[in-house]
Amino acid sequence: MEKRRNYRDPKEPLEFHQIPLEKADELETHPGVLAAINAVATESRPAMTVWKAPTGTECDHIVMALDEYIYLGDFPATKDNCYAWGQDEVRL
Fold first, then answer.
1. Which pLDDT value is given to residue 3?
2. Ranges of the chain whose pLDDT falls below 50
3. 14-18: long-range contacts (C-beta < 8 A, 24 or more apart)?
């Protein structure tokens, strides 16, 4: 069965309202989490806004996008399935 994406491919060029994955270390955020944040960001809710103060729905989609990225091999899974998000984390 072919694996299909529900969220934006993290290798696609970034739009103006997204965070480059190279900023992951600076933001103390796993690159997969940044890619997931970028996937749910919009012009009205840019990625940095989502990174700082996500809504509940955005959090749900970020977790689902990260899970998809790990499943599809875009990012390797961590041993403990914890992914940094600034001073917080996402657990899969």
1. 76
2. none
3. 14/38, 17/41, 17/42, 17/43, 17/46, 17/47, 18/46, 18/47
Is residue 21 a contact partner of residue 35, using CB atoms and an 8 Å limit? yes
Give dist(CA 74, CA 21) in Å, integer. 13
User: Measured between alpha carbons, how far is 51 from 19 in angstroms, rounded to an integer?
Assistant: 9
* The predicted structure's pLDDT at residue 4: 86
Here the tokens at position 86 are 């600034």
* pLDDT the model gives residue 28: 98
Q: How many residues does the chain have?
A: 92
Res 36: pLDDT = 98
Task: Burial-class residue 34 by CB neighbours within 10 Å (0-12, 13-18, 19+).
Answer: buried
Asked if 54 contacts 48 with a C-beta cutoff of 8 angstroms, the reply is: no
